[in-house]
Amino acid sequence: MSAALPKVLCLKKGALLKQVFALSRAATPRESHLCAAGDALLSCHRHYRSHPTHGIGRFKYLLPKEAPKKKKDKIQMKEINAGTDHEYGDINIQMTAYDMCLVEHFAQYVHKLCNRLSIRVNESYAMPTKTEEVLFLEERGSKLQLDAVLTTHQRVIQISHLSSTFAPILLEIIQSNQPEGVHLLVKEHTEADFKIRLKARPELEELKAQMN
């Protein structure tokens, strides 16, 4: 029995080797076909490399041509409407307060009111914010100390062609809805009101004065 066992093991090993050899033979043709296909792909010549692209990938010619940017013209003052015997000319409704939200909401209300009453609104704008420092003097001293800083916000609504008969009614409605802490002023529009909106340039004014 002990001598027969090595022979049986050798036979089994030989059978296994034959099976492995047969499988390797069956696999070699497939691998050769794949290698041949890869060689063909690598060896093929890329003809499109020698042809022009004809604008492929370019899109700028599809966009509309942009107009050249124009320089901003200087702000010029419009002619002030002086009014007639039955109509007022350009009128400024100025609202000033320390609370920005309060004066802004009141300006919106006045603007909407004029639109509802078919009153022509030329423009509505905000004036630059002004700051004021409140100082106080000590009882036994000569130095001034800062007590508070007050900021005033102003909104202006300019209207025109307001009839003289309807003006008192409009002012009464606005005053009846005027909130506390808002200062209201109605006046005719002048050239000084327009110049206040522009930024002051003292250096330019000095040069102009020297030239003159």
Folded structure, characterized:
- There is one protein chain.
- The protein has helices at 4-43, 100-116, 167-176, 191-197, 202-211; strands at 87-88, 91-97, 120-126, 130-137, 144-160, 162-163, 182-188.
- The chain is built from five helices and seven strands.
- The strands form two sheets. Strands 2, 3, 4, 5 and 7 form a five-stranded antiparallel sheet that branches. It has a two-stranded antiparallel ribbon with strand order 1-6.
- Mean pLDDT is 78; it is low at 1-9 and 27-42.
- The chain starts with a helix and ends with a helix.
- It has 212 residues and is α+β, with helices and mostly antiparallel strands.
- The protein is elongated and about 120 Å long.
What topology does this entry show?
Blueprint: H1 4-43, E1 87-88, E2 91-97, H2 100-116, E3 120-126, E4 130-137, E5 144-160, E6 162-163, H3 167-176, E7 182-188, H4 191-197, H5 202-211
Antiparallel strand pairs: 1-6, 2-5, 2-7, 3-5, 4-5
